[in-house]
Amino acid sequence: MLGFLLARPMHGYEISQALKNDGVEVWFEISAAAIYYSLNKLHRLGHIAEAHSRGVSGDRTIYHVTESGREQFFADMRGLLASREPVRTAYDLGISMLNRMPQDQVEPLLKIRVEFLETWIADLESRLAAPATQPLQRTILQHSVDTARLDIDWLIDITAQLRATPECEMAPVGLMTLHGDLRELFLPDLIMLITSGKHSGTLTVSAGRNGRSMTFEHGVVHCVASQLSGKMVLDEKQVLRDVYELFGWQTGIYVFDQRGCPREGCVMLDVSAHALMLEGARRLNSWQIIQHVVPTSDSLFAPTGDLGSRDDLALRDDELRVLGIVDGVRNITTIAGVSGLTEFETSRILYGLYLVDLIQMSDPDKSRLRRVFREFVELMCRGAIPYRTTSEEASACEADVNLRSRDLPVSIRDSRIVDRSDPTLSADALAGIYRRFRQTQHAVLGERLGRDITNELRQQVLSRISPDLRATLEQYALL
């Protein structure tokens, strides 16, 4: 901005047009919003001054450089031209993550990039051929052309390397290989990367002379294999047991090669990756692994959705029992107590349910919101019992509240909240649902018990809620 205003005073639109006329948008991205933001900032710093003029199109603000602005411009130019800042591009970030993409998608994507660069070079060269192009602009355009050509050569070389490894030949250091130490990786995360990306290839995990492998086809586990003391295991049941035990390994080296094919003795599978991980989780006996997901007994989890859509999983009775208790409010100790399991058994089940995306770690703010809403509404129901003459009257009151709130994913049954709200809702959206239900309950109680008794009951309930939860009620306007 300072450089353009050194030539002459201009208003914002003139600067925008000057940038366009000089072809700056070809090699430097700057929006109209960025222009006005920069002008406001320079004005606050005293580097430019404003003057107002009235024209045919209305009032305009004209900017001109101050003495401090000139000094700042030359100081910045000296620093810029002598810059020791390395050249970095955002595209390099994409290439650095190349091995996380399915290989059959990478080459077509690189081809699209090359074709774009070739088109862009043609446009730049047409600008270079224009007689009106200024010498400095010509220099910048030529630099862009040279850089684009280097990028094309680089991408062609990458494509050649992708084609260099024949299919079914493992390449531990290939461009599309993922490899590392199990101590630095959560194995289920790697498997979910493979399945969600619909990768094909072979994942091998080895520890000394023992190894396990899984071969994937478009993200689906195709077959598994096991090696003990350097020899391939041929018994299919033993292979499956060995692969399930893999999820308990804490040391070893893993390699996922997208050119890898099934190993000798690979046992064909008819289960999903989720089902494989769940069975592996069931066999865990290590707190250290489980604590990747369940760090403490105070950890909170919430359900992610409807189990009915997961026909690839066959949950056991204890898993279904725990899943039914998880609500984003109860911690591990409470869930264990309600389910009749030990904390370790409960944590192991939660670990498995988390791996297969049936539960998720609960947002602390949403957990407090769910807890205080449940506590407040249920205490209001129980507090109203002495004012009712029959059990039928209590049922009628709940039925009235549920009827008026039938469009909400919340209801009350036998003085207990039934919450079917979407787990992905933000805390504010959830609070909106809870607020409407609270207002409905308050209105129904007011009609049946009278306003004075209802308000008195509300104060009694508030006195029984801890100060930190009461602050949550106030934060989300649930009072």
List the helices and strands and how they pair.
Blueprint: H1 2-7, H2 12-21, H3 24-27, H4 32-44, E1 48-55, E2 58-65, H5 67-81, H6 90-96, H7 103-129, H8 135-164, E3 177-181, H9 187-196, E4 201-207, E5 210-217, E6 220-228, E7 231-232, H10 236-245, E8 253-257, E9 267-268, H11 273-282, H12 287-290, E10 301-303, H13 317-325, H14 332-339, H15 343-355, E11 359-361, H16 364-383, H17 391-404, E12 410-413, E13 416-419, H18 427-449, H19 451-463, H20 467-475
Antiparallel strand pairs: 1-2, 3-8, 4-5, 4-8, 5-6, 6-7, 6-9, 10-11, 12-13
Helix pairs in contact: 2-4, 7-8, 11-15, 13-14, 13-15, 14-15, 16-18, 16-19, 16-20, 17-18, 18-19
Structure explained in plain terms:
By secondary structure, this protein is of the alpha+beta class. The protein folds into five domains: 2-81, Winged helix-like DNA-binding domain superfamily/Winged helix DNA-binding domain (Arc Repressor Mutant, subunit A, Orthogonal Bundle), CATH 1.10.10; 90-164, Up-down Bundle (Methane Monooxygenase Hydroxylase, Chain G, domain 1); 177-282, no CATH class; 287-361, Arc Repressor Mutant, subunit A (Orthogonal Bundle), CATH 1.10.10; 364-475, no CATH class. The protein has helices spanning 2-7, 12-21, 24-27, 32-44, 67-81, 90-96, 103-129, 135-164, 187-196, 236-245, 273-282, 287-290, 317-325, 332-339, 343-355, 364-383, 391-404, 427-449, 451-463, 467-475; strands at 48-55, 58-65, 177-181, 201-207, 210-217, 220-228, 231-232, 253-257, 267-268, 301-303, 359-361, 410-413, 416-419. The strands form four sheets. Strands 3, 4, 5, 6, 7, 8 and 9 form a seven-stranded antiparallel sheet that branches. A hairpin with a 2-residue loop joins strand 5 and strand 6. Helix 7 runs antiparallel to helix 8. The two termini are 52 Å apart. The model has no long low-confidence stretch (mean pLDDT 89).
